[in-house]
Amino acid sequence: MKKREITDKEVARQSAWGGLLLIIVAVVTLEATSLTQYYFSRRGIKQEATQRAESELEATELKIMDVVNQAEAAVRNSVWIAQWCLNTPDSLVRVTQRIITDNPVVKGSTVALVPGYLKKYPLFSPYTTIRPDGKLESLSLATEEYDYPSQEWFTKPIELDGGYWSEPYYDEGGGDILMVTYSLPIKDVKGHTAAVITADISLDWLTELVGSIHVYPTAFSMVVSRAGQFMVCPAETLVMKTSLSDFARQMEDSTGVSQLNDAMLAGQTGSMSIRARGMVNHVFFAPVSRTGWSLSIVIPDEEIFGSLKTVGRRVFLLQVLGILMILFILRYVARNQMKYKQLNERKEKIQSELQVAHNIQMSMIPKIFPAFPERKDLDMAAMLVPAKEVGGDLYDFFIREERLYFCVGDVSGKGVPASLVMAVTRSLFRSLAGRETSPTQIVSQMNTSMSDMNESNMFVTFFCGVLDMKTGHLEYCNAGHNAPLIFTDKIDMVPVMANLPLGIMQEFDFQQQSIDLHHDDALFLYTDGVTEAENINHELFGDERLEEVMHTRRTAQEHLEAVRDAITAFVGEAPQSDDITLLFIHYLG
Predict the structure, then answer these.
(1) What does the alpha-carbon distance between residue 521 and residue 588 come to, in Å, rounded to a whole number?
(2) Cβ distance 121 to 141 under 8 Å?
(3) Which fold has domain 85-202?
């Protein structure tokens, strides 16, 4: 008896160690699962934020470039007029007036002669600006106080021998507004640089445009100039008074801001994470073509990942609760037996779930043939061979009021998601075809329902037909599916309008078509898994092989078996790449 008692203690001790090991494994597994989920969720959210920011940057740049292009076009289109007026400089003021009048984005313009180009006018620069009341005002920039020949907008285009966007500046001598200037050198008939023509643009529109960017509620946008000066910024005190490099020296993450400054000044496109005032911010930036400016969107880390962190904390609490429950169970229940029992049950469940799903999916479609043995006017058979345990192909048919309602469909994708969409599609068809008589109405209403709930962006190619068994008149609507074959005295394709697949556009106007079937005519509907079946050499089964198989007269079931056997022989050892669905309708009315 004593020896038996010791053995029981050893067993209990081993069970205790086994239970402790189970707890450790459970904790590690839960934590690893949580970290994995957190990693992929964080990466997905970051990708979404990046896409939104990049899309907004691209859209905003296009809007900025629209104004930039207008200003540049206004200057270029006036160069020839200014060249013609070089010998009559008093006429140049009308050139500047014309630029402003014809181009609403331009607030000021001048044609500044190169010093000494005309002996009569050592310095000559007529300037026109538009005042707040809408009236044009003309004045001269050739003053001792302004000294236009030393200004950047004058020297740079001559130096570069081309168009140039100046640094933002407050134009006290001309427009009296914060502006940027696009300038272009003018050459005379001898090819000598004679003057510089300009177009001034106020930065008010840029401030309003950039301020309207709303990627996230707390996100904000900035524009910095070629020299790194803040042109647009939520803190108005920084505009044209502080550069990004100056701002970097005030930040705790000065290295990160400096790197951001270098990247933006270099005209790069990208993103960086920067810490400021104890918070992490994600900065997405891109250059504005030809101007030297750089546009950026700043999104706080909390704005992007705040909800994920909240969920993470809740998940952690649930994990702790789960572990406590495991401890409680392991203390008061036969842990080893329960553990092995649960493991075996889970294993069997996993192995059987796919088979159950397959059986459920197959039970949704008619599979007893002949489908209507009492009818002499119809020979019909169908077959569905999924590439995996479950698939996205479907077919269905039934007779209501002497009209055969039938369909074939192919869901984008494979596996469980496609099978769920397949089940929804088949249910919608059954429901709508039970009360509607027009295939267009059936397809349109199915499309409306599927588009409304299509959060996964999956779609279904679909062919729906209604055959009057008394007259042989067939009405049908095709939603992006491949055309069926029709058997008369020859094999041909049923003429179909492509239309869009189901689930893409909610209000799409589907077109209905019709043909008449005569005695002994037949229809063969199939999915692209037939013609696109591949062998080990990646060759496709194709339409020609399909038509060769179908040339021999057989019963509906024999036709399908012949097609299946031909595909199997062609594919050989290669795995089935897509679901295969066949539906043969032989009209004998």
Answers:
(1) 7
(2) no
(3) Beta-Lactamase (3.30.450)
